[in-house]
Design a protein that fits this description.
about 900 residues, alpha+beta, Rossmann fold
Length: about 900
C-alpha cells in the first residue's frame, strides 16, 4: 500500500512537471507554445516583435472566437544559435523539431503561404504551423490572407483541434441539393460575386460543358458582411469572429472539413469537433467563460547552446558477453558517425557504483573521437543501480557550466533496476536535461519509457542480436535536427544476416547525398574480407578500412560517386557468424536538398482496444516524395514481429493522398515493447513530387467594395521541377512504443473515404479503394451499396435508402482499386443528381462505418454561355443550358419522325 501511494504521488508530480515542449491548457490559458526560427533566417529584432504582435492580437481574437474561454498565456521563441545580438535565455528541453510554429524562409513550392502540416484525421493534433519571415514582415504579402492574428487563429485550429478547411480550391463550386450552383464555403450566408480574372481584369464567369463555372472562376466576397462564421473558411472578413456551428454548418459543401469529419449521420461543424473531439474537449466543455479580457501573453526568447552529451552505460553483471560487446560497437558507431564537430561528449558507467570514464571532451577531430572510443567499457559485473548512474551523469554534465539544463544523457541498460528508480525520477525531470533511454533486451525496466517521456527524450528498445542491427539503429536515431537538413547524418542502409560464406548487396547513393559517406560493418567473432565497388568500378578492400572493437569502418573519400555501390563480405570462418552493415551519408550539394524520412506511431502506448497507425514521411525540403516503396517492421521484446507496407493512397489509415505521408494500421496487437524500423526504396528515376497543401489559409483574390471589384495582387505561381536524384534507399528507426495487453477485439473494416461517382448515360460508375477485414489489413467479405436523390436521407438514414444488389462484386485485397457499374431504377435526365455511399462487412459480419458520400450529376453539354456575376445569374445560365438542351432534343426527335 505504501508503494502504491508513493507511486501515485510521483505520477502527480510528473503531471505537474510534464514536458516543456508540449502545449498545455493551463486553466483558460495556453502555455508552453514553442515558436522556432530556422537557422537560415538572419537575426532580426523586428521579426521577434511581429511574432509577439501576432500572438497578442491573436489571443484577443481567439478569446472572442471561443466564447471567452481560452487565450494565449505563455509563448517561447527559440532563436538560432547563430543569433548573437540579443540576450537570450538558455533553452532546456526545447528543440527545433519540437517547435509547433516554424518560422522559415519561403520555399518555392508553397511561397509565403501560411499552412499547417496535418498528418492525422479529424480531431487529432497537427504537427506544426509554417510561416515565413516575409509573411510576418511584409504587409503586401500578408494582406490577401487577412490580418496576421486571424490567419494564426485559423492555423491554430488546424494545429490544436484537428479541424480542416471549409473551402476547396480544387472544387470551388458545387451543385446544391436544391439545384443551385454555390461556392464551397461555410456558412452559405457569406455573400459575394463570381468573376474570372483575365490579366487581373475581372469578367463574368463562363459555364463549362459540365454545367459548372469554369476552373478560372473565383468567388469574390463582399467586403461588408454580417455573417460571423466561419474562421475556417474566410477569416479575413472583418465580420467573421466565430467557428461554424451546427446551426450555420453547410453539410453539403465538398470541403476537407466535411470529408474528414463526416460520419454516417451529418458531417460535423468545426465548433462541434473542437468541443467534442479535440484534445481540449473536456476542458472546453467544463471551463467557465472569463468575465474580462485576459492579460497579453508573456514571452521568453531562448537559444540552444552547443550540444553536450553524456553516455551513461550499463556495466552490470547481466551485460557480460555479447551485450557488453554490442554496447561497445554501437557506441563506437555513434562517436564516429553521429556526433558532430564542436559537440562535447563524456562517458559514465554504472553497476553497483558509478564512475566517470571520460570527462566532457570536445569533438574537434579524429583524435578526440578515438580517445572516447578507447575509453568505452569492455568488462561487466555487479548490480543495476540506475539512480547511481543517472546522478553520476548529472555530476559530469555540471562540470562545464555548473548546470544540466538543456544537456543530454543517453542512458543504456539491459536490466531491471536494483534500486528504487522512483526516487530519482522526479530529480531527472527537474534537472532540465533531455534523457534518451535505450532498453537493451527484454528485461529492461519499464520506468525507462516514463523517464524519456517526461524529459523530452527518446525511448527505444533494442534486441541484442547483431543481425537485427537495432542497437546501432537506436544510436543512429539520436541526432538533433536544428532545421538545417544539409548537416544531418542520413542512414541509407541498415541490414544484417547470419552468414556462412558471402554477404552481398547493393547500396544506391543518390545525388542528394554523398558527403562523409561511411560503411560500418559489425561482425560477431572474426573480421570478414571486405570488398566494396563504386559505380565506375573502383575497388576498395582491406587496405582502405579501419578495424576497431569488431567494427570495420570504410569512409568514401570526398563526395561519393552517385549510383549503385556493390559490397561483398566473405566470412572466413567455417561456421556462420552474424554480420551487419550500416551506411551513413550527408548532403552533397548546397542547392540539392537531401531526401529525408521520419517514422513514428500515432500513439506511444496502446491498451489493445483500438488499432495503432504507423506513419512515415518521405520528403525533400518539405516537398512530398511520391511513388516510394515503404515498409515498416515492428518487432517486440517478446518476439512478435509484423511487416507492413505503408501506403500514400488517401485510404484506410492514410488521411491525404499524395502528401508524402505513408501510413498503415497496426491491428495485430500483442503485449510488449516494440521497436519500429522503416525502410524506403525509390527506383523510378526522377523523384515524383506533389505541391498541393491540404491545410492553410485561403488567398483572397479580391473583394466587392461598394459594388466594384477590388483586386488583390495575383498569387505567386508554383514553378518547381522535380530533381532527378537517382535511385535511393533510406532506413530510419522511430521511437519505440508499448502495447499493454493482447487485443481480443475483432476490428471492423476501415471506413471508405475516397468513394467517387460518375453518371454515364443511364449507368453509374463507382470507384473506391478496397478496405481490409481488420481496418486496412486483409480483405472484406462484401459491400452494401446504397443511393438516393436526397442527400440528407442518405446521411441520416443509410439503411432506408435504395439498395443495389452488388453480390456479384468480389472484393479486392485492401489497398487495391474497386470499380463497380450499375443502373439505378430511375430515369436519369439532364440535371439528375444522385448520392451514393458504401458500407463493407467482414466474415464475422462486423460492419464498417458508412463511407463518404459521393455525388454525381448528369449534364447534357450545351453551348458555353457567359453568365453575369452572382448566384442568380448562374442559376439562370444553367436553366438556359438545360432549355437549349431540351430544344435540341425536341428538334432531333421531330427530325427523326419526319424522316420516318
Amino acid at each position: 500500500a505504501v508503494i502504491v501511494k508513493m507511486f501515485a504521488v510521483v505520477v502527480l508530480v510528473l503531471i505537474a512537471l510534464k514536458s516543456a515542449t508540449t502545449i498545455r491548457l493551463d486553466g483558460n490559458g495556453y502555455t508552453d507554445i514553442l515558436v522556432v526560427i530556422n537557422p537560415t533566417v538572419p537575426e532580426n529584432e523586428e521579426l521577434l516583435n511581429q511574432i509577439k504582435k501576432m500572438f497578442i492580437s491573436g489571443s484577443e481574437y481567439l478569446f472572442e472566437a471561443l466564447e471567452h474561454k481560452v487565450f494565449f498565456k505563455e509563448v517561447k521563441i527559440l532563436v538560432p544559435p547563430t543569433w548573437t545580438s540579443g540576450k537570450y535565455e538558455k533553452a532546456t528541453t526545447e528543440s527545433y523539431k519540437k517547435g509547433k510554429i516554424r518560422i522559415e524562409d519561403s520555399f518555392s513550392q508553397y511561397g509565403n503561404e501560411p499552412y499547417t502540416h496535418q498528418t492525422e484525421g479529424c480531431g487529432r493534433e497537427g504537427d506544426y504551423i509554417h510561416l515565413t519571415p516575409d509573411f510576418l514582415l511584409n504587409n503586401h504579402i500578408s494582406e490577401p490572407y487577412g490580418p496576421r492574428e486571424r490567419v494564426f487563429v485559423h492555423e491554430w485550429a488546424h494545429l490544436r483541434w484537428g479541424v480542416f478547411d471549409e473551402y476547396n480550391t480544387r472544387e470551388p463550386f458545387y451543385l446544391s441539393a436544391a439545384g443551385h450552383i454555390q461556392p464551397t464555403r461555410c456558412t452559405d450566408k457569406i455573400s459575394g460575386e463570381w468573376y474570372e480574372l483575365n490579366n487581373q481584369n475581372p469578367r463574368s464567369c463562363q459555364i463549362d460543358a459540365s454545367g459548372k463555372p469554369s476552373p478560372r472562376c473565383e468567388f469574390f466576397p463582399d467586403y461588408i458582411q454580417t455573417a460571423k462564421a466561419s474562421i475556417m473558411f474566410m477569416q479575413s472578413l472583418l465580420s467573421v469572429k466565430a467557428f461554424c456551428g451546427e446551426k450555420e454548418h453547410n453539410y453539403e459543401a465538398p470541403n476537407e472539413q466535411n470529408k474528414q469529419c463526416g460520419k454516417a449521420t451529418r458531417t460535423k461543424a468545426t465548433h462541434t469537433v473542437i468541443f467534442e473531439n479535440s484534445v481540449d474537449k473536456d476542458a472546453l466543455r467544463n471551463l467557465n467563460p472569463l468575465s474580462s479580457v485576459p492579460t497579453p501573453p508573456t514571452f521568453k526568447v531562448i537559444q540552444r547552446g552547443i550540444r553536450v552529451i553524456c553516455l551513461v552505460l550499463d556495466v552490470s553483471g547481466s551485460m557480460q558477453g555479447l551485450r557488453i560487446s554490442q554496447q561497445q560497437r554501437a557506441a563506437t558507431f555513434f562517436l564516429n558517425q553521429i556526433t558532430d564537430e564542436k559537440q562535447f561528449v563524456g562517458l559514465v558507467t554504472f553497476s553497483t557504483d558509478a564512475q566517470i570514464l571520460s570527462p566532457l571532451t570536445k569533438i574537434d577531430g579524429p583524435a578526440a573521437r578515438q580517445k572516447l572510443i578507447n575509453s568505452l567499457p569492455t568488462v561487466a559485473s555487479g548490480s543495476t543501480n540506475i539512480c547511481t548512474g543517472l546522478r553520476k551523469g548529472f555530476e559530469l554534465l555540471r562540470t562545464d557550466d555548473g548546470q544540466t539544463i538543456g544537456d543530454e544523457i543517453i542512458f543504456l541498460t539491459d536490466g531491471e533496476a536494483s534500486d528504487n528508480v522512483q526516487a530519482c525520477l522526479q530529480e531527472s525531470v527537474q534537472s532540465g536535461a533531455i534523457i534518451h533511454t535505450l532498453a537493451f533486451g527484454p528485461s529492461a525496466d519499464n520506468i525507462l519509457r516514463t523517464m524519456a517521456e517526461q524529459t523530452d527524450g527518446k525511448f527505444i528498445v533494442a534486441e541484442e542480436s547483431i543481425l537485427s542491427n537495432q542497437l546501432v539503429d537506436a544510436f543512429s536515431s539520436l541526432t538533433v535536427y536544428d532545421g538545417n537538413s544539409f548537416t544531418q547524418p542520413i542512414q541509407l542502409e541498415s541490414t544484417g544476416t547470419d552468414v556462412k560464406d558471402w554477404f552481398n548487396g547493393t547500396v544506391p547513393i543518390d545525388r542528394s547525398v554523398g558527403n562523409h559517406t561511411t560503411f560500418t560493418i559489425i561482425y560477431e567473432r572474426s573480421a570478414p574480407t571486405v570488398n566494396i565497388v563504386s559505380p565506375s568500378g573502383v575497388v576498395y578492400d582491406q587496405r582502405h578500412i579501419t578495424d576497431i572493437a569488431k567494427t570495420i569502418t570504410f569512409t568514401i573519400p570526398g563526395t561519393a560517386e552517385p549510383g549503385n555501390w556493390r559490397y561483398s563480405f566473405f566470412n572466413k570462418e567455417t561456421s556462420a557468424q552474424e554480420i551487419s552493415l550500416t551506411v551513413i551519408s550527408r548532403a552533397a550539394h548546397d542547392d540539392v536538398y537531401p531526401v529525408t524520412v521520419t517514422a513514428r506511431m500515432d500513439q506511444q502506448t496502446s491498451d489493445g482496444t483500438k488499432p495503432m497507425v504507423v506513419l512515415a514521411e518521405v520528403s525533400q525540403n518539405y516537398i512530398p516524395v511520391l511513388g516510394a516503396s515503404v515498409w515498416a517492421k515492428l518487432r517486440s521484446d517478446t518476439g512478435h514481429s509484423e511487416e507492413l507496407q505503408l501506403l500514400d493512397n488517401g485510404a484506410g489509415a492514410d488521411v491525404f493522398k499524395n502528401d508524402g505521408i505513408y501510413s498503415r494500421y497496426f491491428t495485430k496487437l500483442k503485449r510488449g515493447k516494440y521497436n519500429l524500423k522503416v525502410r524506403v526504396e525509390h527506383q523510378q528515376g526522377a523523384v515524383q513530387v506533389f505541391f498541393h497543401r491540404h491545410s492553410g489559409s485561403l488567398y483572397i483574390p479580391g473583394h466587392i467594395v461598394d459594388g466594384k471589384v477590388k483586386i488583390n495582387p495575383p498569387k505567386p505561381k508554383i514553378n518547381v521541377q522535380p530533381v532527378d536524384v537517382g535511385n535511393f534507399t533510406r532506413t530510419v528507426t522511430g521511437e519505440s512504443f508499448v502495447v499493454d495487453r493482447d487485443t481480443t477485439i475483432n476490428f471492423p473494416p476501415n471506413k471508405i473515404t475516397d468513394l467517387i461517382a460518375e453518371i454515364k448515360e443511364d449507368t453509374v460508375l463507382l470507384n473506391w479503394t478496397a478496405p481490409g477485414e481488420d481496418f486496412d489489413v486483409g480483405k472484406v467479405k462484401s459491400y452494401e451499396i446504397r443511393w438516393s436523390d436526397d442527400l440528407k436521407m442518405l446521411q441520416e438514414n443509410f439503411t432506408s435508402c435504395d439498395l443495389d444488389n452488388s453480390s456479384s462484386l468480389v472484393p479486392q485485397e485492401s489497398g487495391f482499386a474497386e470499380q463497380y457499374f450499375f443502373q439505378p431504377n430511375i430515369t436519369i435526365k439532364n440535371g439528375t443528381t444522385l448520392f451514393f455511399a458504401v458500407q463493407s462487412m467482414d466474415k464475422e459480419s462486423t460492419k464498417s462505418e458508412v463511407s463518404n458520400i459521393a455525388r454525381a450529376t448528369n449534364y447534357v453539354p450545351g453551348p458555353s454561355l457567359i453568365s453575369n456575376q452572382g448566384p442568380n445569374a448562374i442559376i439562370i445560365s444553367l436553366c438556359v443550358v438545360a432549355l437549349v438542351a431540351c430544344v435540341i432534343a425536341v428538334v432531333i426527335k421531330w427530325a427523326v419522325k419526319r424522316n420516318r
